[in-house]
Amino acid sequence: MSRNKEFDEIEVLDKAMWLFWEQGYEKTSMTDLVEQMGIHRRSLYDTFGDKHTLFLRVMDRYDSKVSGTLARGVETSKTATGALQFVVGTLICGAEDTPNGCLMVNSAVELAVRDADVNKRSTDAFTKTEQLLKEIILWGQRDGEFTSDYDAGELAEYLHNVGVGLRSMARTSISKKKLHRIANISMMLIVKGLD
Questions:
Q1: Residue 61 to residues 56, 122, 144: CA-CA distances in angstroms?
Q2: Per-domain residue ranges for the chain?
Q3: What is the pLDDT of residues 108-118, one digit of tens each?
Q4: Could you read off the pLDDT of 159-195 as tens digits, one per residue?
Q5: Whole-prediction pTM
Q6: What is the pLDDT of residues 9-60, one digit of tens each?
Q7: Which CATH number fits domain 9-188: 1.10.357.10, 2.170.150.40, 3.30.200.20, 3.40.50.720?
Q8: Residue 124's Cα: distance from chain center in Å?
């Protein structure tokens, strides 16, 4: 007879996400995960499979959460400039009380070259972010807020590349002030009349 789970699957998945985000894949042991998630080792294996499978579920969960946050922020923005500032600000600061940087960027740097599953999830997430940026840029070009001197898709690729750099730098002791300065210069290339 099977026993009912004595834990909330999403809650413990979020705990694993936090640990992988903070430490990376290689440094995180199964013992670390059992302790962080607060479940028995057998329950971890029965519910999530091995460490790699759990990590892929964590990446999916992270992508879903970030995509939702960005979409809600853009939907509530009154202008394309406001939407772009929200996205860039989120890239620099992330959500409150979370590890610095981005789990997708960290995972791509650590594993993508040798792990096809991680590579696919990372590049899919990057493509979604670029598409969101492209939609914001098209909105701004249509409304006359952004320059139309460049293709919206190419500007989105450029901004996303800047964003990946900012998310990497956010893991260091570099000040948020410097990161915002870099972001503002990048935005000035796109936004008309941004001071």
A1: 9, 13, 36
A2: 9-188
A3: 999 999 999 99
A4: 999 999 988 888 888 888 998 899 889 888 888 644 4
A5: 0.88
A6: 999 999 999 999 999 999 999 999 999 999 999 999 999 999 999 999 999 9
A7: 1.10.357.10
A8: 11
Q: Residue 161, Cβ neighbours under 10 Å: how many?
A: 13
The CA distance from 112 to 120, in Å, is 8
Q: What are phi and psi of 191, to 5 degrees?
A: -85, 130
**Which residues, in sequence order, are CB contacts of 168 under 8 Å at separation 6+?**
101, 105, 109
Cα distance between the two ends of the chain: 67
19 touches 32 (CB < 8 A) = yes
The DSSP code sequence of 113-140 is TT-HHHHHHHHHHHHHHHHHHHHHHHHH
Q: What is the dihedral of CA 16, 21, 27, 29, to 10 degrees?
A: 0
Cα 4-8-14 angle, rounded to 5 deg:
145
